[in-house]
Amino acid sequence: MANAAPPGQxxxxxxxxxxxxxxxxxxxxxxxxxxxxxxxxLKTDNLPVKAMVDTVERDPGLAxxxxxxxxxxxxxHLSTEVTSVQQAVMMLGMQKLALLPKTLPALEVSTxxxxxxxxxxIFSTAYHAAVQATEWARQRRDMxxxxxxxxxxxxxxGEMLLAMDAPELLDRIYQLRNEExxxxxxxxxxxxxxxxxxLSLAIARKLELPTLLIESLQAESAHLPRAYGIMxxxxxxxxxxxxxxxxxxxxxxxxxxxxxxKSSQTVIRETHQLAVKVARxxxxxxxxxxxxxxxxxxxxxxxxxxDESKNKNSHVGVCLVPQIAQLKHALGGxxxxxxxxxxxxxxxxxxxxxxxxxxxxxxAAFVYHDPERNTLKARGVVGVDNDPFxxxxxxxxxxxxxxxxxxxxxxxxxxxxxxxxRYWEIIPLxxxxxxxxxxxxxxxxxxxxxxxxxxYADRHTEDCHLDETAYKYFKAxxxxxxxxxxxxxxxxY
Length: 493
Hints:
There is one protein chain. By secondary structure, this protein is an alpha+beta fold. The chain is built from 25 helices and six strands. A six-stranded antiparallel β-sheet has the order 3-2-1-6-5-4. The radius of gyration is 23 Å and the shape is globular. The model is unreliable at 1-11 and 299-317 (pLDDT under 50).
Protein backbone atom coordinates (compact mmCIF):
# COMPACT_ATOMS: atom_id res chain seq x y z
CA MET A 1 0.00 0.00 0.00
CA ALA A 2 1.21 3.50 -0.76
CA ASN A 3 2.33 5.43 2.26
CA ALA A 4 -0.02 8.00 3.71
CA ALA A 5 1.51 11.44 3.89
CA PRO A 6 2.46 12.16 7.52
CA PRO A 7 0.65 15.33 8.59
CA GLY A 8 3.92 16.76 9.86
CA GLN A 9 5.36 16.70 6.33
CA UNK A 10 2.57 18.70 4.75
CA UNK A 11 3.34 22.37 4.06
CA UNK A 12 1.77 25.07 6.16
CA UNK A 13 -1.45 25.82 4.34
CA UNK A 14 -3.33 29.10 4.16
CA UNK A 15 -7.11 28.96 3.80
CA UNK A 16 -8.46 29.38 0.28
CA UNK A 17 -10.10 32.68 1.28
CA UNK A 18 -6.70 34.18 2.24
CA UNK A 19 -5.18 33.18 -1.09
CA UNK A 20 -8.12 34.72 -2.93
CA UNK A 21 -7.78 38.02 -1.08
CA UNK A 22 -4.05 38.21 -1.80
CA UNK A 23 -4.03 36.99 -5.40
CA UNK A 24 -7.12 38.77 -6.69
CA UNK A 25 -5.53 42.11 -5.84
CA UNK A 26 -2.60 41.41 -8.19
CA UNK A 27 -2.25 42.02 -11.90
CA UNK A 28 -0.74 39.47 -14.26
CA UNK A 29 2.17 40.99 -16.21
CA UNK A 30 2.25 41.19 -20.00
CA UNK A 31 4.99 39.80 -22.23
CA UNK A 32 7.38 42.45 -23.56
CA UNK A 33 6.84 41.16 -27.09
CA UNK A 34 3.08 41.76 -26.70
CA UNK A 35 3.62 45.34 -25.54
CA UNK A 36 5.87 45.97 -28.55
CA UNK A 37 3.39 44.38 -30.96
CA UNK A 38 0.54 46.38 -29.46
CA UNK A 39 2.49 49.63 -29.95
CA UNK A 40 3.22 48.65 -33.57
CA UNK A 41 -0.43 47.80 -34.32
CA LEU A 42 -1.62 51.09 -32.84
CA LYS A 43 0.56 53.01 -35.29
CA THR A 44 -1.14 51.35 -38.25
CA ASP A 45 -3.36 53.60 -40.35
CA ASN A 46 -7.04 52.62 -40.37
CA LEU A 47 -6.40 50.11 -37.62
CA PRO A 48 -8.79 47.13 -37.89
CA VAL A 49 -10.24 45.99 -34.59
CA LYS A 50 -9.38 42.37 -35.42
CA ALA A 51 -5.65 43.13 -35.47
CA MET A 52 -5.86 44.52 -31.94
CA VAL A 53 -8.04 41.64 -30.74
CA ASP A 54 -5.58 39.07 -32.13
CA THR A 55 -2.69 40.81 -30.36
CA VAL A 56 -4.52 40.93 -27.03
CA GLU A 57 -5.77 37.34 -27.22
CA ARG A 58 -2.26 35.95 -27.62
CA ASP A 59 -1.36 37.21 -24.12
CA PRO A 60 -3.52 36.11 -21.16
CA GLY A 61 -2.09 38.87 -18.96
CA LEU A 62 -3.25 41.58 -21.34
CA ALA A 63 -6.58 39.87 -22.01
CA UNK A 64 -7.31 39.74 -18.28
CA UNK A 65 -6.25 43.38 -17.85
CA UNK A 66 -8.74 44.54 -20.47
CA UNK A 67 -11.58 42.37 -19.16
CA UNK A 68 -11.03 43.61 -15.59
CA UNK A 69 -10.74 47.24 -16.68
CA UNK A 70 -14.00 47.10 -18.64
CA UNK A 71 -15.80 45.13 -15.93
CA UNK A 72 -14.93 47.83 -13.40
CA UNK A 73 -16.16 50.53 -15.76
CA UNK A 74 -19.41 48.69 -16.46
CA UNK A 75 -20.57 48.88 -12.87
CA UNK A 76 -22.44 52.09 -13.56
CA HIS A 77 -26.04 52.73 -14.45
CA LEU A 78 -25.84 50.50 -17.54
CA SER A 79 -23.91 47.56 -16.13
CA THR A 80 -23.22 44.78 -18.61
CA GLU A 81 -21.04 41.69 -18.43
CA VAL A 82 -17.86 41.92 -20.51
CA THR A 83 -17.49 38.48 -22.08
CA SER A 84 -14.89 38.78 -24.86
CA VAL A 85 -11.71 40.60 -25.81
CA GLN A 86 -13.44 42.15 -28.82
CA GLN A 87 -16.12 43.60 -26.55
CA ALA A 88 -13.44 45.00 -24.23
CA VAL A 89 -11.49 46.55 -27.12
CA MET A 90 -14.64 48.21 -28.45
CA MET A 91 -15.60 49.54 -25.00
CA LEU A 92 -12.16 51.04 -24.26
CA GLY A 93 -11.62 52.61 -27.68
CA MET A 94 -8.33 53.15 -29.45
CA GLN A 95 -7.42 56.32 -27.56
CA LYS A 96 -7.35 54.53 -24.20
CA LEU A 97 -5.67 51.48 -25.74
CA ALA A 98 -2.93 53.75 -27.10
CA LEU A 99 -1.94 54.65 -23.51
CA LEU A 100 -1.44 51.03 -22.41
CA PRO A 101 1.98 50.14 -23.92
CA LYS A 102 3.66 52.70 -21.66
CA THR A 103 1.87 51.62 -18.49
CA LEU A 104 1.61 47.82 -18.69
CA PRO A 105 3.94 45.78 -16.42
CA ALA A 106 6.39 43.74 -18.53
CA LEU A 107 6.70 40.10 -17.48
CA GLU A 108 10.45 39.99 -18.12
CA VAL A 109 11.03 43.02 -15.84
CA SER A 110 8.45 42.66 -13.07
CA THR A 111 8.85 38.96 -12.15
CA UNK A 112 11.69 36.68 -11.11
CA UNK A 113 13.05 33.92 -13.34
CA UNK A 114 11.09 31.11 -11.63
CA UNK A 115 7.79 32.98 -11.96
CA UNK A 116 8.61 33.80 -15.59
CA UNK A 117 9.20 30.11 -16.34
CA UNK A 118 5.86 29.09 -14.85
CA UNK A 119 3.91 31.99 -16.37
CA UNK A 120 5.17 31.33 -19.91
CA UNK A 121 4.33 27.64 -19.56
CA ILE A 122 0.81 28.45 -18.29
CA PHE A 123 0.28 31.17 -20.92
CA SER A 124 1.18 28.64 -23.58
CA THR A 125 -1.27 26.02 -22.36
CA ALA A 126 -4.00 28.62 -21.86
CA TYR A 127 -3.63 29.99 -25.40
CA HIS A 128 -3.59 26.51 -26.91
CA ALA A 129 -6.74 25.54 -24.94
CA ALA A 130 -8.50 28.73 -26.03
CA VAL A 131 -7.76 28.18 -29.73
CA GLN A 132 -8.90 24.54 -29.65
CA ALA A 133 -12.08 25.42 -27.72
CA THR A 134 -12.92 28.26 -30.10
CA GLU A 135 -12.45 26.08 -33.17
CA TRP A 136 -14.82 23.47 -31.71
CA ALA A 137 -17.31 26.22 -30.87
CA ARG A 138 -17.28 27.40 -34.49
CA GLN A 139 -17.83 23.84 -35.69
CA ARG A 140 -20.86 23.64 -33.41
CA ARG A 141 -22.08 26.98 -34.81
CA ASP A 142 -21.75 28.80 -31.50
CA MET A 143 -23.27 32.25 -31.76
CA UNK A 144 -20.38 34.02 -29.97
CA UNK A 145 -17.18 31.93 -30.15
CA UNK A 146 -15.13 34.87 -28.81
CA UNK A 147 -16.77 34.22 -25.43
CA UNK A 148 -15.47 30.66 -25.55
CA UNK A 149 -11.93 31.91 -26.20
CA UNK A 150 -11.64 34.15 -23.14
CA UNK A 151 -13.35 31.64 -20.84
CA UNK A 152 -10.92 28.89 -21.87
CA UNK A 153 -7.90 31.18 -21.61
CA UNK A 154 -8.79 32.53 -18.16
CA UNK A 155 -9.57 29.01 -16.94
CA UNK A 156 -5.92 29.10 -15.77
CA UNK A 157 -6.15 32.37 -13.79
CA GLY A 158 -5.51 30.78 -10.38
CA GLU A 159 -2.39 29.03 -11.60
CA MET A 160 -1.12 32.21 -13.27
CA LEU A 161 -1.52 34.27 -10.10
CA LEU A 162 -0.02 31.52 -7.95
CA ALA A 163 3.00 31.40 -10.29
CA MET A 164 3.64 35.05 -9.46
CA ASP A 165 3.16 34.82 -5.70
CA ALA A 166 4.37 31.31 -4.84
CA PRO A 167 6.18 29.57 -7.73
CA GLU A 168 7.84 27.23 -5.24
CA LEU A 169 4.44 25.70 -4.45
CA LEU A 170 3.92 24.95 -8.13
CA ASP A 171 7.36 23.32 -8.15
CA ARG A 172 6.28 21.02 -5.31
CA ILE A 173 2.99 20.19 -7.03
CA TYR A 174 4.75 19.25 -10.27
CA GLN A 175 7.29 17.19 -8.35
CA LEU A 176 4.51 15.16 -6.71
CA ARG A 177 2.76 14.76 -10.02
CA ASN A 178 5.71 13.95 -12.27
CA GLU A 179 8.11 12.14 -9.94
CA GLU A 180 5.77 10.44 -7.48
CA UNK A 181 2.86 10.06 -9.94
CA UNK A 182 0.27 11.60 -7.62
CA UNK A 183 -2.91 12.55 -9.54
CA UNK A 184 -3.00 16.27 -10.21
CA UNK A 185 -5.91 17.27 -7.96
CA UNK A 186 -4.50 15.27 -5.05
CA UNK A 187 -1.12 16.96 -5.48
CA UNK A 188 -2.95 20.31 -5.31
CA UNK A 189 -4.74 19.21 -2.15
CA UNK A 190 -1.57 17.96 -0.44
CA UNK A 191 0.36 21.17 -1.12
CA UNK A 192 -2.39 23.81 -1.01
CA UNK A 193 -5.33 22.21 0.81
CA UNK A 194 -7.56 22.90 -2.22
CA UNK A 195 -7.32 22.49 -5.98
CA UNK A 196 -6.10 25.15 -8.39
CA UNK A 197 -9.43 25.03 -10.20
CA UNK A 198 -11.14 25.85 -6.88
CA LEU A 199 -8.74 28.78 -6.53
CA SER A 200 -9.49 29.94 -10.09
CA LEU A 201 -13.23 29.66 -9.44
CA ALA A 202 -13.06 31.70 -6.23
CA ILE A 203 -10.93 34.41 -7.91
CA ALA A 204 -13.23 34.52 -10.94
CA ARG A 205 -16.22 35.04 -8.66
CA LYS A 206 -14.48 37.73 -6.61
CA LEU A 207 -13.41 39.63 -9.74
CA GLU A 208 -16.84 39.12 -11.35
CA LEU A 209 -15.32 37.58 -14.46
CA PRO A 210 -17.54 36.14 -17.21
CA THR A 211 -20.26 33.68 -16.20
CA LEU A 212 -19.10 31.16 -18.80
CA LEU A 213 -15.66 31.05 -17.17
CA ILE A 214 -17.25 30.42 -13.77
CA GLU A 215 -19.41 27.63 -15.22
CA SER A 216 -16.44 25.95 -16.91
CA LEU A 217 -14.57 25.83 -13.58
CA GLN A 218 -17.38 23.85 -11.90
CA ALA A 219 -17.34 20.13 -12.63
CA GLU A 220 -21.11 19.92 -12.22
CA SER A 221 -21.51 22.25 -15.22
CA ALA A 222 -20.23 19.55 -17.58
CA HIS A 223 -23.80 18.99 -18.82
CA LEU A 224 -23.76 22.52 -20.32
CA PRO A 225 -22.44 22.24 -23.90
CA ARG A 226 -20.33 25.43 -23.93
CA ALA A 227 -18.74 24.70 -20.55
CA TYR A 228 -18.14 21.06 -21.53
CA GLY A 229 -16.30 22.11 -24.70
CA ILE A 230 -14.00 24.34 -22.63
CA MET A 231 -13.33 21.51 -20.17
CA UNK A 232 -12.39 19.17 -23.02
CA UNK A 233 -10.12 21.75 -24.66
CA UNK A 234 -8.36 22.49 -21.36
CA UNK A 235 -7.66 18.78 -20.87
CA UNK A 236 -6.40 18.41 -24.45
CA UNK A 237 -4.03 21.36 -24.06
CA UNK A 238 -2.74 20.10 -20.72
CA UNK A 239 -2.27 16.58 -22.05
CA UNK A 240 -0.46 17.82 -25.17
CA UNK A 241 2.40 19.11 -23.05
CA UNK A 242 3.09 15.49 -22.08
CA UNK A 243 2.20 13.47 -25.16
CA UNK A 244 -0.32 13.36 -27.97
CA UNK A 245 -0.37 9.58 -27.95
CA UNK A 246 -1.11 8.48 -24.38
CA UNK A 247 -4.38 7.03 -23.13
CA UNK A 248 -5.78 10.17 -21.52
CA UNK A 249 -5.29 12.26 -24.66
CA UNK A 250 -6.87 9.62 -26.87
CA UNK A 251 -9.81 9.39 -24.48
CA UNK A 252 -10.29 13.17 -24.59
CA UNK A 253 -10.22 13.20 -28.37
CA UNK A 254 -12.73 10.33 -28.49
CA UNK A 255 -15.10 12.30 -26.24
CA UNK A 256 -14.61 15.42 -28.35
CA UNK A 257 -15.42 13.37 -31.45
CA UNK A 258 -18.66 12.11 -29.88
CA UNK A 259 -19.57 15.66 -28.88
CA UNK A 260 -18.82 17.08 -32.33
CA UNK A 261 -20.48 14.21 -34.18
CA LYS A 262 -17.27 13.27 -36.01
CA SER A 263 -15.01 10.25 -36.19
CA SER A 264 -12.11 10.01 -33.73
CA GLN A 265 -9.64 9.92 -36.63
CA THR A 266 -11.01 13.21 -37.98
CA VAL A 267 -10.83 14.98 -34.61
CA ILE A 268 -7.32 13.67 -33.94
CA ARG A 269 -6.15 14.92 -37.33
CA GLU A 270 -7.82 18.32 -36.86
CA THR A 271 -6.49 18.89 -33.34
CA HIS A 272 -2.99 17.98 -34.51
CA GLN A 273 -3.22 20.34 -37.50
CA LEU A 274 -4.52 23.18 -35.35
CA ALA A 275 -1.75 22.68 -32.77
CA VAL A 276 0.91 22.95 -35.49
CA LYS A 277 -0.81 26.04 -36.91
CA VAL A 278 -0.92 27.67 -33.47
CA ALA A 279 2.75 26.84 -32.90
CA ARG A 280 3.80 28.46 -36.17
CA UNK A 281 1.97 31.67 -35.24
CA UNK A 282 3.13 31.67 -31.63
CA UNK A 283 6.29 32.49 -29.72
CA UNK A 284 5.36 30.22 -26.81
CA UNK A 285 8.03 27.53 -26.34
CA UNK A 286 5.60 25.08 -24.74
CA UNK A 287 3.25 25.15 -27.74
CA UNK A 288 6.16 24.65 -30.10
CA UNK A 289 7.38 21.75 -27.97
CA UNK A 290 3.93 20.15 -28.09
CA UNK A 291 3.80 20.57 -31.87
CA UNK A 292 7.32 19.12 -32.16
CA UNK A 293 6.03 15.97 -30.45
CA UNK A 294 3.46 15.67 -33.23
CA UNK A 295 6.05 15.97 -35.95
CA UNK A 296 8.56 13.74 -34.17
CA UNK A 297 6.57 11.35 -31.95
CA UNK A 298 8.48 9.08 -29.61
CA UNK A 299 7.99 5.38 -30.39
CA UNK A 300 6.63 4.84 -26.89
CA UNK A 301 5.50 7.18 -24.14
CA UNK A 302 7.99 8.23 -21.50
CA UNK A 303 7.93 6.54 -18.13
CA UNK A 304 6.27 9.59 -16.56
CA UNK A 305 3.62 9.65 -19.26
CA UNK A 306 2.92 5.94 -18.97
CA ASP A 307 2.57 6.19 -15.21
CA GLU A 308 0.33 9.25 -15.47
CA SER A 309 -1.99 7.42 -17.86
CA LYS A 310 -2.29 4.58 -15.36
CA ASN A 311 -2.27 6.41 -12.06
CA LYS A 312 -5.99 6.92 -12.02
CA ASN A 313 -6.57 3.31 -11.09
CA SER A 314 -3.24 1.74 -10.33
CA HIS A 315 -0.71 3.53 -8.11
CA VAL A 316 -0.09 6.87 -6.50
CA GLY A 317 2.81 7.82 -4.30
CA VAL A 318 0.66 9.37 -1.57
CA CYS A 319 -2.74 8.37 -0.24
CA LEU A 320 -5.01 11.04 1.16
CA VAL A 321 -5.38 10.86 4.92
CA PRO A 322 -8.37 12.04 6.96
CA GLN A 323 -8.07 15.59 8.29
CA ILE A 324 -10.26 15.62 11.39
CA ALA A 325 -10.32 19.41 11.68
CA GLN A 326 -11.66 19.68 8.11
CA LEU A 327 -14.21 16.94 8.77
CA LYS A 328 -15.48 18.72 11.90
CA HIS A 329 -15.62 22.00 10.00
CA ALA A 330 -17.86 20.47 7.33
CA LEU A 331 -20.09 18.70 9.87
CA GLY A 332 -20.36 21.90 11.89
CA GLY A 333 -21.18 23.91 8.78
CA UNK A 334 -24.06 21.58 7.92
CA UNK A 335 -25.37 21.77 11.50
CA UNK A 336 -25.18 25.56 11.49
CA UNK A 337 -27.21 26.04 8.30
CA UNK A 338 -30.37 27.99 9.17
CA UNK A 339 -33.79 26.36 9.08
CA UNK A 340 -35.82 26.75 5.89
CA UNK A 341 -32.78 27.62 3.80
CA UNK A 342 -32.97 27.07 0.06
CA UNK A 343 -29.19 26.95 -0.36
CA UNK A 344 -28.79 23.46 -1.79
CA UNK A 345 -25.49 24.55 -3.35
CA UNK A 346 -24.06 25.28 0.11
CA UNK A 347 -25.22 21.91 1.43
CA UNK A 348 -23.56 20.12 -1.50
CA UNK A 349 -20.37 22.15 -1.10
CA UNK A 350 -20.05 21.29 2.59
CA UNK A 351 -20.83 17.62 1.95
CA UNK A 352 -18.17 17.24 -0.76
CA UNK A 353 -15.61 19.26 1.19
CA UNK A 354 -16.10 16.99 4.20
CA UNK A 355 -15.76 13.82 2.15
CA UNK A 356 -12.71 14.88 0.16
CA UNK A 357 -10.77 17.18 2.47
CA UNK A 358 -12.06 15.74 5.76
CA UNK A 359 -12.52 12.00 5.23
CA UNK A 360 -9.65 11.79 2.73
CA UNK A 361 -11.74 10.22 -0.04
CA UNK A 362 -10.23 10.81 -3.49
CA UNK A 363 -13.47 11.32 -5.43
CA ALA A 364 -16.97 12.15 -4.26
CA ALA A 365 -20.21 13.06 -5.98
CA PHE A 366 -23.75 14.00 -5.04
CA VAL A 367 -25.95 12.40 -7.70
CA TYR A 368 -29.52 13.66 -7.52
CA HIS A 369 -32.62 11.80 -8.64
CA ASP A 370 -34.72 13.38 -11.37
CA PRO A 371 -38.08 11.62 -10.99
CA GLU A 372 -39.53 13.12 -14.17
CA ARG A 373 -36.77 11.69 -16.36
CA ASN A 374 -36.15 8.77 -13.98
CA THR A 375 -32.40 9.33 -14.03
CA LEU A 376 -29.55 9.93 -11.61
CA LYS A 377 -27.41 12.93 -12.55
CA ALA A 378 -24.30 14.44 -10.93
CA ARG A 379 -25.08 17.72 -9.21
CA GLY A 380 -21.72 18.22 -7.53
CA VAL A 381 -18.37 16.42 -7.78
CA VAL A 382 -14.93 16.78 -6.23
CA GLY A 383 -11.56 15.14 -6.75
CA VAL A 384 -12.11 14.25 -10.41
CA ASP A 385 -9.00 16.05 -11.70
CA ASN A 386 -11.22 18.23 -13.89
CA ASP A 387 -12.46 15.06 -15.61
CA PRO A 388 -15.46 16.21 -17.67
CA PHE A 389 -16.63 12.62 -18.23
CA UNK A 390 -17.07 11.69 -14.57
CA UNK A 391 -18.69 15.09 -14.06
CA UNK A 392 -21.32 14.31 -16.71
CA UNK A 393 -22.37 11.19 -14.84
CA UNK A 394 -25.97 10.37 -15.74
CA UNK A 395 -27.66 7.00 -15.24
CA UNK A 396 -31.10 6.06 -16.51
CA UNK A 397 -33.16 3.98 -14.09
CA UNK A 398 -35.15 2.14 -16.72
CA UNK A 399 -34.06 -1.29 -15.56
CA UNK A 400 -33.39 -2.88 -12.14
CA UNK A 401 -29.95 -2.09 -10.74
CA UNK A 402 -28.13 -1.26 -7.51
CA UNK A 403 -28.98 2.42 -7.56
CA UNK A 404 -32.67 1.86 -8.13
CA UNK A 405 -32.65 -0.29 -4.98
CA UNK A 406 -30.69 2.41 -3.10
CA UNK A 407 -33.48 4.90 -3.84
CA UNK A 408 -36.12 2.75 -2.12
CA UNK A 409 -35.06 3.97 1.33
CA UNK A 410 -32.11 5.56 3.12
CA UNK A 411 -29.32 2.99 3.19
CA UNK A 412 -25.55 2.79 2.83
CA UNK A 413 -23.22 0.33 1.13
CA UNK A 414 -19.47 -0.21 1.11
CA UNK A 415 -18.68 -2.35 -1.93
CA UNK A 416 -15.67 -4.47 -1.01
CA UNK A 417 -14.12 -7.92 -1.40
CA UNK A 418 -16.66 -9.56 0.91
CA UNK A 419 -19.82 -8.45 -0.92
CA UNK A 420 -18.62 -7.72 -4.46
CA UNK A 421 -19.85 -11.04 -5.82
CA ARG A 422 -23.34 -10.25 -4.53
CA TYR A 423 -23.63 -6.72 -5.96
CA TRP A 424 -21.28 -6.43 -8.93
CA GLU A 425 -23.64 -7.79 -11.56
CA ILE A 426 -26.42 -5.32 -10.69
CA ILE A 427 -24.15 -2.29 -11.11
CA PRO A 428 -24.75 -0.77 -14.59
CA LEU A 429 -21.93 -1.59 -17.01
CA UNK A 430 -21.61 2.04 -18.13
CA UNK A 431 -21.12 3.07 -14.50
CA UNK A 432 -18.39 0.45 -13.96
CA UNK A 433 -16.59 1.76 -17.03
CA UNK A 434 -16.91 5.32 -15.77
CA UNK A 435 -15.52 4.82 -12.26
CA UNK A 436 -12.74 2.34 -13.19
CA UNK A 437 -12.60 0.89 -9.69
CA UNK A 438 -14.30 -2.02 -7.97
CA UNK A 439 -14.57 -0.63 -4.43
CA UNK A 440 -16.67 2.38 -3.44
CA UNK A 441 -19.10 3.88 -0.92
CA UNK A 442 -22.70 4.88 -1.63
CA UNK A 443 -25.54 6.16 0.53
CA UNK A 444 -29.00 7.44 -0.33
CA UNK A 445 -30.13 10.85 0.91
CA UNK A 446 -33.71 11.52 2.01
CA UNK A 447 -35.61 14.81 2.35
CA UNK A 448 -39.24 15.07 3.41
CA UNK A 449 -39.89 11.36 2.90
CA UNK A 450 -38.44 11.41 -0.62
CA UNK A 451 -35.06 9.99 -1.63
CA UNK A 452 -33.50 12.91 -3.44
CA UNK A 453 -30.27 11.31 -4.54
CA UNK A 454 -27.21 9.24 -3.78
CA UNK A 455 -23.78 10.18 -2.46
CA TYR A 456 -20.85 8.32 -4.03
CA ALA A 457 -17.19 8.22 -2.94
CA ASP A 458 -14.07 6.15 -3.62
CA ARG A 459 -10.30 6.10 -3.25
CA HIS A 460 -9.83 5.52 -7.00
CA THR A 461 -6.61 3.49 -6.71
CA GLU A 462 -5.61 -0.06 -5.92
CA ASP A 463 -3.05 1.07 -3.34
CA CYS A 464 -5.29 3.40 -1.33
CA HIS A 465 -7.91 1.11 0.14
CA LEU A 466 -11.21 2.01 1.75
CA ASP A 467 -11.54 1.01 5.38
CA GLU A 468 -13.98 1.06 8.30
CA THR A 469 -12.85 4.53 9.34
CA ALA A 470 -13.50 5.99 5.89
CA TYR A 471 -16.92 4.30 5.85
CA LYS A 472 -17.76 5.72 9.28
CA TYR A 473 -16.79 9.26 8.27
CA PHE A 474 -18.67 8.88 4.97
CA LYS A 475 -21.90 7.88 6.74
CA ALA A 476 -21.51 10.67 9.29
CA UNK A 477 -21.29 13.27 6.50
CA UNK A 478 -24.28 11.77 4.66
CA UNK A 479 -26.43 11.61 7.78
CA UNK A 480 -25.62 15.22 8.68
CA UNK A 481 -26.49 16.21 5.10
CA UNK A 482 -29.84 14.48 5.48
CA UNK A 483 -30.50 16.41 8.68
CA UNK A 484 -29.63 19.68 6.94
CA UNK A 485 -31.99 18.87 4.06
CA UNK A 486 -34.80 18.07 6.45
CA UNK A 487 -34.64 21.67 7.69
CA UNK A 488 -34.87 23.04 4.15
CA UNK A 489 -38.04 24.25 2.52
CA UNK A 490 -39.67 21.74 0.26
CA UNK A 491 -38.34 22.36 -3.20
CA UNK A 492 -37.75 20.89 -6.62
CA TYR A 493 -34.25 19.51 -7.06
